[in-house]
Amino acid sequence: MNDSLRFIAPALGAFGLFCAFLIYRRIRALPSGTGEIEDIAEQIHNGAMVFMKREFKLLAMFGSVVIVVLWFKDPYESLAFTLGALSSAVAGFIGMYTATKANSRTTVAAYEKGPQEALRTAFFGGTIMGLTVASMGLLGVGGLFVFFGNTAGDIHIIHGFAMGASLVAIFFRVGGGIFTKAADVGADLVGKVESGIPEDDPRNPGVIADNVGDNVGDVAGMGSDLFESYCNAQIATMAIAATMTASSWQAIAISPASLMFLPLGLASVGLLCSLSGMLVVRLFAHKEPARALRMGTLSASILFIAAAYLVMLFLGVSNSVWLCVLCGSAGGVIIGLATEYYTGGRPMREIAKSSQTGVATVMISGLAAGLQSVVIPLLTIAGILLLTSELAGLYGVGIAAVGMLATIGITMSIDAYGPVADNAGGIAEMAGLGKKTRDITDSLDEVGNTTAAIGKGFAIGAAALAGLAIIAAYVNVVRSHHDDFMLQLSDPAVLTGVFIGGLLPFLVSSITMNAVGLAAGEMIEEIRRQFREIPGLLDGNAKPDSARCVDIATEAALKRMFLPAAIAVLSPVVVGFGFGPSTLGGMLVGALLGCVLLALMMANSGGAWDNAKKFIEKGNYGGKNSDAHHACVVGDTVGDPLKDTSGPSMNILINVMAIVSLVIAPLL
Amino acid sequence: MNDSLRFIAPALGAFGLFCAFLIYRRIRALPSGTGEIEDIAEQIHNGAMVFMKREFKLLAMFGSVVIVVLWFKDPYESLAFTLGALSSAVAGFIGMYTATKANSRTTVAAYEKGPQEALRTAFFGGTIMGLTVASMGLLGVGGLFVFFGNTAGDIHIIHGFAMGASLVAIFFRVGGGIFTKAADVGADLVGKVESGIPEDDPRNPGVIADNVGDNVGDVAGMGSDLFESYCNAQIATMAIAATMTASSWQAIAISPASLMFLPLGLASVGLLCSLSGMLVVRLFAHKEPARALRMGTLSASILFIAAAYLVMLFLGVSNSVWLCVLCGSAGGVIIGLATEYYTGGRPMREIAKSSQTGVATVMISGLAAGLQSVVIPLLTIAGILLLTSELAGLYGVGIAAVGMLATIGITMSIDAYGPVADNAGGIAEMAGLGKKTRDITDSLDEVGNTTAAIGKGFAIGAAALAGLAIIAAYVNVVRSHHDDFMLQLSDPAVLTGVFIGGLLPFLVSSITMNAVGLAAGEMIEEIRRQFREIPGLLDGNAKPDSARCVDIATEAALKRMFLPAAIAVLSPVVVGFGFGPSTLGGMLVGALLGCVLLALMMANSGGAWDNAKKFIEKGNYGGKNSDAHHACVVGDTVGDPLKDTSGPSMNILINVMAIVSLVIAPLL
């Protein structure tokens, strides 16, 4: 392998950031509206920035401790950790900054120019996040690889980067998840239910916080989630390559260096394919939105699979490794489709039907749908695991994860598009731009909801595979220090770990679920207070104190994100040093299983309840305000923290635990 | 070890059955009431028998296939299977037969003699089931041990017995669970909600079916569940002993024969301790019911721990094995207390409090409580596993399970007492015996609810340990055929199994949950039809066709219990022969983890909702018919299938899968 190849990844990363900057300039140049629109957009933007700043402060404190501790293990690894944390934080910041700029511009585009231009604005607002995530990953991982990718002994330094990314992710995901649902539930319960004013009404003091929440949770939270899966998958695969025996690597490549570089190579061409996909969306923007987005993702994926073949040919890697990429991509599609089926197909309609017999049956059928929805994704993951390990050992599993995530540039763009479109609708409503504009933003938003559901399934699948790869790397690293290391399931120490690992996702879910309830309670009190104490607010003669609501949601979220993050970081340390590497290995597997199962169940139950409500709102079973509708509204409210707070936290919980274990592995 | 010792277990089994017969004669001689009481009791009794007969038919069909297939493996094992299935079925039949005789006699005792006599009648009605379960186990396992316990090579024949017991258990548990909740939900929804008549009103055609369901689900279902855990724990421990290496057994006993016999020895003295405990309850029956029952269980446990010490001294087994018994007993108590806390302590009161903000918050806080409730039990199981395996290897884990279950005679009695007391209350209401009688039966029932919740936690813990022991035996058996057999977690084949195993509990839960919904729907239609078509029914001038409702619930339950049973039996066969013993081993561990987690979560969420409703009915947060109460009623309805159908099925699912794997292990 030519040594100058190493520079490709960081160079492409820089190029990707440049593209993101160009897009940002174009978005920035679009009319952002005046008067009311500008004012509302400004409030959302400022709210998001307030949250970000305070979150960064907390992160800095928590992170400093880790930096110091890591310094004693290896100063370089500590620096890599800092870099990883900064990269993730910067990517989140840029994504959110631009998303809160794109929202009002989408509103204006819908109002002044119509659906095509609105779609383009919303989508390209999202692409900045997509490109930033992919590019920061390439820049960071690729940059470290230039320095530390030469020798297998140095590769562990890059693990620090993964750990930094994971730590930021758990803060963003959990904090953002609590913020967004506390604001959502609070604003809805007092506004819609108690005071009888419509959704997104400007008189409601919680509405701005609700819109901030979309950005905080769905843009920054989802972005940091995918960023860490993306980086971790690459880093874990490198780690596996670094600890492979000669006979293993000889079976699939001409040199171990090729195998080390391959994840970066795939991610690099993945970025180019994502850019092409974005072009396709732009070209198809005059078609219906759903189709344009689907064409974009699809063409990026197909292009990537073809390009991956060439990359392997060029690097002298066996075809069987390319088949692993194929498995990863196909698996991602299957899990996405399964998610779509459970949240939008027959199970969702069964829930809607069961609403005729009341809330209890809505709850039972929703839980049953969620429980059942784990079957196909788990079988898919098991199938990928079996096939890829047959094709290329545990390295193949890592490559499947890398393949699934390589086109993150476009998948993340589409995920970020959702909240931009949602915000645009909110701004249109608050500014009173009329039904025509609202219809356009609604249609964009609807597409966003479907893509969000699929994106969630995809994120879970990717996190599971990345987690698997890190666990495999962990086992290899421990074994490289203890020749006789075995992770036998019949060993009581391992089984003990499996049980401990299994309970952690349940514990963290219950903590985050209760956190939303408590935070929402604080929001409710504040909104009630404002309605009571600000004269003329309900008549529209006074402005609500929206900033105070943002403040309360921020405070509540930050206070309650600490415990889950601490559990994720500390449990591997305690178990690893307290009980040894076997128990820790068992714990990772138990936690992986528990996290994937709960993540799927919660995401799909929640998604199905949400869509069942929307299905009824379209006029089925009595339509809006019928008894059936009321029953489904309860389902939707219950599903909110499940699908947007507790469920998504699971992805990161397992990855944080796995990466911390990988980092401490040499010390055990 | 003296060879004549072997005869002790079956002899004690026969003695226990004789005691049960004596108690039955005394119960039978009590006044059973006349007129209305007799008539209602007769209807419940006949309904239960109708269900039993039809369930036996289905079982016979399914069982015959297994008998034939097993015959080809080993005719003796096939016979043992038949014996195990028959023992479990007979125990269930006797228990239910007598429970449906004791219920009306409890009502009469409450009416004519007061609370003391009522408690005695209900409790001793339950002891027949308790004694029968323990005695049939000793008779069956002990009898087979006389013939096949001599040589390690023959011990596998006894596995057939365990498989028979497990197969019956899954039919009884799932079928009974669907029946009881379909009847309960159906009767409540049409009676209480639609027609506004009180619970247990004789005009409601579903009330008899509801009372039948208590016996079918809580007596026969719970009995077969504990019977199989009881037998499986002993059999698995024998299997571990049979495959121990010389150095392993030498560390803890003077001969391997002692270790083989020890489980039976412990179960034998356990029966005697249970009998003593029953005497204690009888002596304390003039105190408050809860205290009498607690004194009985406690004294039986303490006596057993002391007796176990003597047994080991006598058999020449090390003290460290006795400590394993101590771990098992202590673990059972801890899990029981944790269950009591989550279903009756602060988390339950938090749910009640959250009912002030509506159904959605009741649902969220209930789910959060259930999720969190897994933590202590899982840590306890992990702790038992770690300690006992340190003390005596995997044999220690098996002995902990045996120790936890040895006093099943009294724990099962108390479990069976609950539905008898519940039925007695139903009969009192239907026969219109007035408030005084109802108050007595209500107080007995309340105690029954607490014991039922603790019993559920205990059953889960016991099933988990028994499952662990069987899995350990499975690994040993496979290893005795393939020297190089390893169950390495880093082996993709094993990990694939873990994923497949993890999804099965979720799949089976969703199937059983939906089954309750569908079956309840059929009940609702029939009850509505009767109210509509039978003239004068609602005015009390005509009798409902209760038998028809029993019939419908029976039909619905039998139809839908087949699929879960088939999944439990066939999945190990398919995975074992299709993917090999490593994947099957991984699957068992994944399924064990998933089953224990879901079982705990569902039992405790359901129990907490149930008790939160009762807490409000006592006058808190507005009391009966307040908005808070309505919200909690929904929680209770959602919790019903979770805690009484899907949750309990988990215990058996894992044990069936494990025992089938153990039986097919030599063929893999």
Automatic annotation (TrEMBL), chains A, B:
It holds the Pfam family H_PPase. Its EC number is 7.2.3.1. Homodimer. It is found in: Cell membrane; Endomembrane system. One of its GO terms (cellular component) is endomembrane system. The chain crosses the membrane at residues 6-24, 56-72, 78-100, 121-149, 155-172, 235-254, 260-285, 292-314, 320-338, 359-386, 392-414, 458-477, 497-520, 561-579, 585-604. Sodium pump that utilizes the energy of pyrophosphate hydrolysis as the driving force for Na(+) movement across the membrane. The record marks A452 as: Determinant of potassium dependence. It comes from the Bacteria. Belongs to the H(+)-translocating pyrophosphatase (TC 3.A.10) family. K(+)-stimulated subfamily. This is Putative K(+)-stimulated pyrophosphate-energized sodium pump. Its main location: membrane. It is a multi-pass membrane protein. It catalyses: Na(+)(in) + diphosphate + H2O = Na(+)(out) + 2 phosphate + H(+). Its cofactor is Mg(2+). Requires K(+) for maximal activity. Coiled coil: none annotated. GO terms for biological process: sodium ion transport. One of its GO terms (molecular function) is magnesium ion binding. The gene is hppA. Keywords: Cell membrane, Hydrolase, Ion transport, Magnesium, Membrane, Potassium, Sodium, Sodium transport, Translocase, Transmembrane, Transmembrane helix, Transport.
